[in-house]
Amino acid sequence: MARVRKQSSIKASTAERKADTAERILAAARELLDREGPAAVAMRPVAEMVGITPMAIYRHYADRERLLNAVADEGFRELAGRVQALRLKGDAERRLLEIGDVFLNAALKSPHLYHLMFLAPREGARQYPKDFVAGRSPTFNPTVRVLEEAMKAGELRRDD
Question: What is the mean pLDDT of the segment spanning 146-151?
């Protein structure tokens, strides 16, 4: 019984170390991106920052593009959290301005990340309009809700 628990805890600690390493790689890539832009995010400098070999990164991210996608995905999670935490009040214009301020602040705080998230072509990025119409954009869905509510309330005409 003790042997089973020991093996289980070894597996758990290995998984925890792997997750910790992946998080450190992601944080290093984000730091490089914020400081110097996407061209600076390469396996060697990321590995140096984390204290691992460049080849070790490939255990966590298949290639540079997947690492950049992970950085962008994390940026979207952060942005979605900020937008969804808003307690929107007032008319449609006021609520849209509040949402817009969150996007503007994100762009000003981390322009390289914002560019990667919204402007750089990336494999796996959400596609407009298909993914947005389907409600697959946690960052854009609150804007859609405000617009739909404004149309129902007569503040906006349908399809304005």
Answer: 94
